[in-house]
Amino acid sequence: MEQSTAAQVIIAILPLAGIVMSSVVAFFYLLWYHRRRVLLIKSGQYRKPSYDLTSFSLFTGLLLSSVGLGLTVFLAVVEGAGYGLLGGVIPLSIGTGLLAYFIIIRRGNRDS
Predict the structure, then answer these.
(1) Of 102, 23, 79, 30, nearest to 87 (Cα)?
(2) Distance between CA atoms of 8 and 92, rounded to whole angstroms?
(3) How does pLDDT run along the chain (112 residues), one tens digit per residue?
(4) Annotated domain spans of the chain
(5) Which of 55, 58, 80, 102 has its CA 20 to 30 A from that of 64?
């Protein structure tokens, strides 16, 4: 059974409409967030949010390492060695790098 041309046009337009609508929402969110921050700065009520990079690197490193290790083992068993294995090796290596960063920063802070 063939689809009509109208159905094909609608099917082709729907993803584009979704992308445009989400871009509009993201634009206005960023615009209003910026205006809110500017008004808070002008009124003297703005407080810079604190951000702990070492805790973030530990948390993200643990998550990425565990997910990457699981994916690497699963993909190695299912597919063997190949390009599909990169789906697990990449997060594993990023997670390992973040954990190494956390260890290096902790040693540097302890020595100081």
Answers:
(1) 79
(2) 42
(3) 577 788 888 888 888 999 999 999 999 999 999 999 999 999 999 888 888 888 888 899 999 898 888 888 888 888 877 777 888 888 889 898 988 988 888 887 776 5
(4) 1-49, 53-106
(5) 80
Q: What angle do CA 87, 100, 90 make, to 5 degrees?
A: 10
Q: Is the pTM of this model over 0.70?
A: no
Transcribe 20-80 into DSSP letters.
Answer: HHHHHHHHHHHHHHHHHHHHHHHHT---PPP--HHHHHHHHHHHHHHHHHHHHHHHHHHT-
Residue with tokens 């634009």: 27
- Nearest residue to 89 via CA among 73, 77, 100: 73
